[in-house]
Amino acid sequence: MNGPLLKVENLTKHYPLGSGIFKKNIPVIRAVEDVSFSVEAGETLCIVGESGCGKSTVARLLMRLVEPTGGRVLIDGTDIAGLKKDALRAWRRRMQMVFQDPYSSLNPRLTAGQIITEPVENFERLSRQQRNALAADLLQKVGMSPEMMHRLPSELSGGQRQRLGIARALALKPSLIIADEAVSALDVSVQAQILNLLLDLQQQMGIAFVFISHDLGVVEHIGHRVAVMYLGRIVELAPCEALFAKPVHPYTEALMAAAPVPDPTRVRLEAPVEGEVPSPINPPSGCAFHPRCPLAVERCRIEVPPLVPLADGRVVACHVRAPATDVVAKPTTAANSSLSRVV
Ligand SMILES: Nc1ncnc2c1ncn2[C@@H]1O[C@H](COP(=O)(O)OP(=O)(O)O)[C@@H](O)[C@H]1O
Ligand code: SF4
Ligand SMILES: [Mg+2]
């Protein structure tokens, strides 16, 4: 199959605030606004940004847990909105999700073995022997002992529960796993173990990840490419190495300045971003970052900056750092076309 595994085109999600007859006048929360990206087989695309910028809404749109206000999600070139019964079931096998809080996403009354074999049993009947063999295999894949299959979630540590969540996601041999803040609730040392586990699984099984996190340190460890979101929009999408070597968008720069610097040889960037994230109900005009941006000029208050492809394979939406006058390609397709996998 040619083309990307996952392609997202101009995805938009507005949540109406309240209801009424005159729908046109109801204010909306602009959770996701015109988001486009693609993910190749076996690739990790990270989505990073402050709380409330729309990351989880993108995840829910990808999993079809919520319907988009606009835009499309394509798997292997097929629009998931048009899928009917059987095709939808087949597609659901290919995309799995791992959540932030493993405890609330695991049924407390089921044993670890039942939890991880349940997705398969939704598709086919398993004998007791097959079920035990599958549970043992999946537990071993995520670095747990097969004896753990008899335990309840409450009898496991936070790290073990997250491993269990990953084992459950692996059960159907997916092509893509969407991990939403999957390590955020864990201690730093356990975080590192889970990230290494995901990297190993990717190498062994060729799984692609959409890895969502507010933590740039985590993203740097695991990502091939990184999309930075601000108030529902992607403002910079870049190969991981290029982004961490030199952020171009002033918001990315500010995020990095705010994050701890694990590498002492790396120069700390300018001052962290000041002020609060504005409300997505009535976002600032033009570039939504302009009230907080030290580089803002008059144009920033008026025009939304398009995503402009730069020579090093990134796209950036900034009138000052990536002026659209230099563009050759169409901005909305740039996020899909100009980015190749970087390992
Ligand atoms: N079901 C919903 N109804 C109304 N607003 C929502 C809903 N889900 C998310 N939002 C709003 O959409 C915005 C983006 O939320 P979310 O995608 O959860 O951000 P993130 O995951 O980056 O923290 C926030 O302002 C949030 O309050
Ligand atoms: S477009 Fe203007 S306000 Fe937005 S990030 Fe660039 S300089 Fe700052
Ligand atoms: Mg979230």
Rounded mean pLDDT is 88
**Cα radius of gyration in angstroms:** 21 Å
**Helix-strand pattern:** EEEHEEHEHHHHEHEHEEHHHEEH
Strand content: 15-25%
* End-to-end separation: 21 Å
Main sheet record: 8 strands, mixed
- Which ranges are low-confidence, i.e. pLDDT below 50, for 5 or more consecutive residues? 264-271, 326-343
- Helix content class: 25-40%
What overall form do the CA principal axes indicate? globular
Spatial order of strands in the largest sheet:
6-7-8-3-9-10-12-11
List the helices and strands and how they pair.
Blueprint: E1 6-16, E2 28-39, E3 44-48, H1 55-62, E4 70-75, E5 78-79, H2 85-94, E6 95-98, H3 102-105, H4 112-121, H5 128-141, H6 158-170, E7 176-180, H7 188-205, E8 208-213, H8 216-222, E9 225-230, E10 233-239, H9 240-245, H10 250-258, H11 298-302, E11 308-309, E12 315-316, H12 331-337
Parallel strand pairs: 3-8, 3-9, 6-7, 7-8
Antiparallel strand pairs: 1-2, 1-4, 4-5, 9-10, 10-12, 11-12
Helix pairs in contact: 4-5, 4-6
The protein binds adenosine-5'-diphosphate (ADP), iron/sulfur cluster (SF4) and magnesium ion.
Membrane topology: Peripheral membrane protein
GO molecular function: ATP binding; ATP hydrolysis activity
Pfam family, one: oligo_HPY
Description:
This protein is an alpha/beta fold. It has a domain at 233-260 and 272-323. It has twelve helices and twelve strands. The protein has an eight-stranded mixed β-sheet with strand order 6-7-8-3-9-10-12-11, with helices on both faces. A hairpin with a 2-residue loop joins strand 9 and strand 10. Mean pLDDT is 88; it is low at 264-271 and 326-343.
